Amino acid sequence: MAGVATHPVSDDPARGAATSGRGGRSLSLGIADAVTVLAASAAAADAAATLVANAVDLPGHPAVRRGPASAEDPDSDLGERLVVLDVGPLDDG
Q: How confident is the model over 34-44, as pLDDT tens digits?
């Protein structure tokens, strides 16, 4: 059939998937709403998704509100690092 993979799933090199970004269960250093990564393992996908989501950023932009991680979650291992609390409207520029 057209459009249907003919190889078994076990032959697929992607064995793990993860999504990271703002608004999830974790605090984020970046402004990405969501980043999804497929990788050889779930752990690799999770690490890569976190790195990419944190890298999507606009440092110093007035529409991005940040605050210390410890103020949002006293148990956070991010301590006083600034995490994204809210992102206002952004223009194409």
A: 999 999 899 99
Residue at token pair 């064995």: 15
The percentage of residues in the chain with a pLDDT greater than 90, rounded to a whole number, is 63
74 vs 28: CA distance, rounded Å: 15
Spatial distance between the Cα atoms of 29 and 50, rounded to a whole number of angstroms: 9
48 found inside a domain: yes
Q: Residue 8: what pLDDT? A: 54
CA distance linking residue 70 with residue 50, whole number of Å: 19
Does residue 92 fall inside a structural domain?
no
Q: Determine, yes or no, domain membership for 4.
A: no
HEC assignment per residue over the chain: CCCCCCCCHHHCCCCEEEEECCCCCCCCCCCCCCEEEEECCHHHHHHHHHHHHHHCCCCCCCCEEEEEHHHHCCCCCCCCCEEEEEECCCCCC
